[in-house]
Each structure stands twice: as structure tokens, then as C-alpha cells.
Design brief:
Length: 360
């Protein structure tokens, strides 16, 4: 793994202009395609809410599949907002910001504030010294072993699948996004305020149409499902077998993109709902590529196709990853800690081995 990573980085550094020339062809937004994507996402999403309104008069059970469909469309809506934040969805910055705000309101995400935090994520992805903003909390093995009992408990709780994929989506989108983060600028803070006000307006209209409790149940169900899917996608895009992590002095942008972000090959229907975000290696390599050009860019050069492919089935292994082992340069589970403790006990009970280790 180490030899492969070093050789790959050396190739990237020796000819960095090669990939830049390739991706430049796909960085140009298409107004017709952007408009069509807005139409085939937001109009069906509005249609889902209308359908829920009518079927609820018959039975709320009929609304369940519509809620799931609405959640899928909201994931796609988030990708549009995401692309607007990168300035890749439209040529016009005003259009990106306007539609980014609208889709941000629908996804409970303050556009400018999220854009600021997400830019930090892109600048520090795969950087062990840059963790903490816009990423999933990840400790190294050594950091975990040196942490207090309370911090270890909090970490295990945060990485628990039920917390991470069920409770965390509601917390992040319903509560956390309602308040600006420490260090946010004036525009980012205003973004939170205006998003909250717009969401309140939508909630009043929805409550008038459905009734407060019915609207709340439908809206939170859609947010929960779409948020869970979104956090899973984000998680598996940076927590997979063979992922790249380096200390800042050795960190390389291209390697962090192509080796630190996954190529999550999804069935076509899921690729459509997720806005092709599975081509995450290319997105991190060039965030200015609109989501509808990512697949073509991936197919444009063997260099991109050599990136390790993750499937729905193989991605399930990511559930077992908990910590980054700097010595072995890979993600490990908690069982690895038990192995380390056994080795430590064996070492302490054998003076010869202990002395040899100290000499090394």
C-alpha cells in the first residue's frame, strides 16, 4: 500500500498538467443541462408533496413510498446546491448563488455557510493535520489510546452506526445548521439567518396545507431518510479500504483526490438520485466539474479508471472502520486495539522482547 501510494504520488507530481488538461474540457457548465436537471428534480419533488396531500386523505400509509421518493429527490436537490456552491452548475455566479440558496432552503442547509465549511473540507481532505471541519470525526490509533475515558466514550458514540446514520442527520440538518459555526464571517452568518426565515415561511405554508403535525412528520421523515443517505455517501467516500491519509508535510493534492476519495460505482438509478457524486475522486480533483459531466470525465482517461472501485456490497466493509493506523497506513476497527493490547501484554511479560523493542 505504501509503495503504491508513493509511486502514484510521484507520477502525479512529475506531470501535474496532464490531468488538468483533461478535466478542463469538462469544467464548462451546460445551461440546457442545468436547467433540465433543475426541472427534473424540483418539479417532481413538488409533485411528491402534492401527491402526499391527496393520498393522505385516503390513508397515510399510501404516503410512505412517496416520502421515500421525496427523500431521493432531496438528495439530488442537495447535489445541485452543492454544485452551485462550487460555482460549477451555472456559468453565472448570481445564478449559482440564487439557486444554491433556494435548494439550500429545501435541504435545510444555509448556502453560504455550508459553502465556506465545505471549501475547508476540500482543502484538507486526507490531511491528518487538517481534520475537524466538514468531515467525519476520525482519530488515529495513538490519539485514541492517549485520549481520556470520556473522549473515547464520546468517540465510540459518535461513530456508532445508529448515531451516525440515524440521529446525526436530524441533528445536523434540523439543529446544527440553524446556528453559525465559530469563525463564520458576516455573510455566512446572514446566510443562516435568511435560510431559517425562509424555512419558517415554508413550514407555515406546509402547516396550513397539511396541518402542523402532519407537515412536521412528513418533512422530518424526508429529511431523516435523505440525510441518512447523504451522510452515508459522504462517509463511504472518505472511509474505505485503501484510503489515503498523510501528515501535512507529505500531503499531496492529487493523491488526496484520486486515492483519498472513492469511486463509488452505483446502479444507474441510484447514480441519478445521487447526482453522480459516486465519482467523488474526480469531484475532489476538480470541483468545478458539474455533476452531469463527471461520468464522461471519468471515462476520458485510463488514469481515472484505475482508481479503486467500490460497489454497494464492498462499501459495507466501511462499517467496520473506526480509526486510522499511522504505522500500518490504513483504517482499522476496534478489534485492532485488542490485538495491540495483547501484543503489549506479551511484550511486558518477555524482558528480551521488551529490550529489543527499546533498542529499535
Amino acid at each position: 500500500m505504501m509503495k503504491k501510494s508513493v509511486s502514484t504520488q510521484a507520477t502525479h507530481r512529475s506531470n501535474p498538467s496532464r490531468w488538468k488538461e483533461i478535466v478542463a474540457k469538462y469544467q464548462k457548465p451546460s445551461i440546457p443541462r442545468s436547467a433540465w436537471q433543475l426541472s427534473n428534480t424540483l418539479l417532481p419533488y413538488a409533485g411528491v408533496w402534492c401527491a402526499i396531500y391527496f393520498v393522505s386523505a385516503i390513508s397515510w400509509w399510501l404516503a410512505v413510498p412517496l416520502v421515500v421518493l421525496g427523500a431521493g429527490l432531496l438528495v439530488r436537490t442537495f447535489i445541485i446546491s452543492h454544485d452551485c456552491g462550487h460555482g460549477s452548475f451555472f456559468k453565472s455566479r448570481r445564478a449559482n448563488d440564487a439557486w444554491g440558496f433556494v435548494t439550500g432552503v429545501l435541504t435545510f442547509t444555509p448556502y453560504y455557510h455550508w459553502r465556506w465549511e465545505h471549501s475547508i473540507h476540500h482543502a484538507t481532505s486526507g490531511d491528518l493535520d487538517g481534520r475537524g471541519t466538514g468531515d467525519v470525526w476520525t482519530l488515529t490509533v495513538q490519539e485514541y489510546l492517549e485520549a481520556s475515558r470520556w473522549k473515547r466514550f464520546a468517540y465510540r458514540l459518535a461513530r456508532n452506526p445508529f448515531v451516525l446514520f440515524v440521529l446525526a442527520p436530524l441533528f445536523v440538518f434540523v439543529i446544527k445548521h440553524r446556528f453559525p459555526s465559530k469563525g463564520a464571517g458576516a455573510r455566512e452568518r446572514r446566510s443562516v439567518l435568511w435560510t431559517n426565515l425562509a424555512m419558517a415561511g415554508v413550514a407555515v405554508a406546509g402547516s396550513y396545507a397539511f396541518g402542523f403535525w402532519a407537515y412536521l412528520a412528513v418533512q422530518l421523515s424526508i429529511i431523516l431518510i435523505s440525510g441518512s443517505v447523504g451522510i452515508w455517501l459522504f462517509y463511504v467516500q472518505h472511509q474505505f479500504e485503501g484510503v489515503y491519509w498523510e501528515r501535512r508535510e507529505s500531503w499531496d493534492y492529487t493523491a488526496a483526490a484520486l486515492e483519498g476519495s472513492s469511486f463509488y460505482k452505483l446502479p444507474k438509478v441510484l447514480q441519478w438520485f445521487s447526482g453522480s457524486i459516486g465519482f467523488h475522486h474526480l469531484h475532489h480533483l476538480s470541483p468545478r466539474i458539474p455533476n452531469y459531466h463527471l461520468e464522461k470525465c471519468h471515462e476520458a482517461d485510463p488514469m481515472f479508471q484505475r482508481v479503486k472501485q467500490i460497489t454497494l456490497f464492498s462499501s459495507l466493509k466501511s462499517f467496520t472502520f473506526r480509526l486510522w493506523d499511522e504505522k500500518r497506513r490504513k483504517l482499522v476497527g476496534y478489534s485492532h486495539l485488542r490485538k495491540l493490547r495483547r501484543e503489549q501484554r506479551a511484550l511486558m511479560s518477555d524482558p528480551t522482547r521488551r529490550l529489543a523493542r527499546e533498542l529499535n
